[in-house]
Amino acid sequence: MKKTKLLLTLLCAAGLFVGCNEDDNNGGGNGPSDSNFEQNFGSSVSRDFIGQVVDMGNQPVQGATVKIGSSTVQTDSNGMFFVNDASVKQKFAYVTVDKMGYFQGSRSLVPTSGKNSVKIMLVPNTPTATVSSGQTSEVTTDSGTKLLFDGSFEDENGNAYSGDVAVSVFHLKPSDVNISQLMPGMLYAERENGNEAALETFGMINVELRGSGGQKLQPAEGHPAGIEVAIDATQSGTAPATIPLWHFDAEKGWWKEDGVAIRQGNKYVGQASHFSWWNCDAPFPLVQLTITLTDADGNPIGHTGIGISFSGSNWPTMGYTNADGVVSGLVPSNETLTINVYNMCHQVVSTSTQGPFTSDSNIAITASGGSAQTALVQGTLLTCDGSNVTDGYVLMHFGGVYNFAEVTNGSFSFSALVCTPGQTFTLEGGDYDSLQQTDSITYTFTTPVTNVGNLQACNAIDEFISYQIDNQPTVMLIQEVSGSTAQGGLAVSGWNDGGTSNGESLHIWGNGVTAPGVYTTAQFALEGSLGYVTSGVTNDLVFTVTSVGAIGEYIDLTFSGTYEDFDGVTRTITGVAHAIRAN
Predict the structure, then answer these.
(1) Burial code of 277-290, b = ≥16 C-beta within 10 A, e = fewer?
(2) Contact predicate 167/3, CB 8 Å
(3) Most buried of 21, 157, 397, 538 (most Cβ within 10 A)?
(4) CB burial class (10 A; 0-12, 13-18, 19+) of residue 433?
(5) 420 phi and psi, to 5 degrees?
(6) Which of 256, 239, 192, 201 is nearest to 25 (CA)?
(7) Does the global pTM surpass 0.70?
(8) pLDDT at site 108
């Protein structure tokens, strides 16, 4: 059989997903117990996690319940969550997400030291059809995947059920570009004999049955449901005549071999004694592969997509490096792997061939040259009173994709492969201690470093100017902040203490500037508590205007560089302004 597609799950970030709250503890046949299988995972360790939960439109899901080990937290308005010191295994961590109106989401991963980044995409749990007990029935999805019932159902206690049955079905195709984010756990499995296996999927389905009172149902014992899983067009020429069936144990977090499916034309036909996720997969022996991604100077590149395929696979699994540029996961042994590095526009910027590997391995990959342009985005997240945030995050939104970074004593940074310099992105920070957030502020990528200055997590503040001189305390101007493009150019002003002479102030003026762009002190001037700074031999400031909205919308700009103060001392300054345009 030609191995056309392996959907391994590169971990330490990666997408995620969906499952039922089904407690599937049978191991598929007479294989070893779960406790024996779990010996593969190593000893218990404490690991930290940061993540985001989104829907299928990539929009944040608020109020979802996230569980890792014995730790349970709720997502905030950005869909973000933190779990520190979670008790997991050295080689296996299992994250579940529950939210009313969605199938359960999950992700299994090989945790690393430092923050493990996780992104989970939830699937709406909407009934596909309603059938009745006592009658044979069929439920067919748009893809042609089909369920066949003989009319016998029971509740979770084994009691016979009579009445209408709401059937929810989600068919996940191997060609779905989001498959790595939508599937449950990872494609890691327990064979009937208790051996580990990596899986190559030929399609999976998630099914949930509910009675008229909302209770969960299953096909009655001895009355399995028929399942017909449509074979994806991309695999029609390579799908084998028979293939193992696997169900996902949502209590444990891995797949278990459970029967066989037979190919009949363009579909696989089998039976399911109960419902959770079911998968038609070819198994392979596996090893653990850890990848470290750096730029040409040896700096780690975090928050970057890594795709792995083998033997002509067209749809590689996508994983994402953590802040240290590391991603770790399970790959097939004895296979030559193609490893692609993707920029933020999901364009391949680096390709290499690695392996085959016969044992757990660590490799380093360098992404440099051509379109592999690395931008380091860095700044400081402050609390509402101006001190450094100690427990928080910063969320980057670019091109429909969210990335996130942890905050360490106020500092945060993203290293990312941008598409082209000059593209804009937004940042939004959150302070978990105060449960407050920043506004969403627009910036422009500049390479190699984009210094965004200070963000302040204070929900009540809609406008502000923030700047820092050398290593002095950050100045936050939050009173009487305003923006304008009248009188020949862009202007943003802010004061503390009501604009009196005793307070701090800053006026930023761009002569003739009315549009986004990168400008120098030849066009811009600063005036206020720091003195008057304009063009000159000793002043070397760059102003990046990211957004000039209509009246009532925001003006966003950043500035950084050096200038000479009152006493002739050269100072370094970084700052950001976020103000509503008044005229």
Answers:
(1) bbbbbbbbebbbbb
(2) no
(3) 397
(4) exposed
(5) -145, 145
(6) 256
(7) no
(8) 92
C-beta separation of 425 from 446 below 8 A: no
How far apart CA 70 and CA 86 sit, in angstroms, is 7
The answer to whether the CB of 376 falls within 8 A of the CB of 450 is: yes
pLDDT, position 46: 94
DSSP letter string over 16-47? -EEE--------SSS---HHHHGGGG-SEEEE
Domains with residue ranges and CATH for the chain: 17-122+285-366 (2.60.40.1120), 373-580 (2.60.40.10)
Q: Please give the pLDDT value at position 93.
A: 94
pLDDT along the chain (583 residues), means of 10: 32 28 36 71 91 88 89 85 91 93 92 83 93 95 92 95 95 84 88 86 91 93 94 85 91 92 93 89 82 87 81 60 81 87 82 90 83 80 88 80 81 80 82 78 82 80 81 75 86 70 78 90 86 79 90 90 86 89 88
d(CA 245, CA 236): 18
Distance CA 278, CA 229 (A): 10
Residue 175: strand, helix, or coil: coil
Q: Which pLDDT value is given to residue 72?
A: 86
Radius of gyration (Cα) for the chain, nearest Å?
A: 27
Q: 35 Cβ partners below 8 Å, 6+ apart?
A: none
Instruction: Write the DSSP assignment of 171-224 as a string of letters.
Output: EE-TT-TTHHHHSSS-SEEE-TTS-EEEEEEEEEEEEEEE-TTS-EEEEPTT-P
CB hemisphere CA count around 2 (13 angstroms): 11
| Strand 196-210 with 554-564, pairing | unpaired
Cα 213 to Cα 151, 210, 260, distances in angstroms: 18, 8, 34
The predicted pLDDT at position 312 comes to: 52
Amino acid found at 508: I
Label residue 100 exposed, middle or buried (CB < 10 Å: 0-12, 13-18, 19+). Answer: exposed
Phi and psi at residue 234, to the nearest 5°: -70, -15
The rounded distance, in Å, linking the Cα atoms of 120 and 58 is: 10
Beta strands in 276-347 (DSSP E): 277-284, 286-294, 305-310, 317-320, 326-332, 337-342
- Among positive and negative, which fits the CA dihedral 518, 521, 525, 528? positive
Dihedrals phi, psi of 102, to nearest 5 degrees:
-130, 150
Q: What is the dihedral of CA 172, 176, 180, 184, to 10 degrees?
A: -10
pLDDT of residue 314: 44
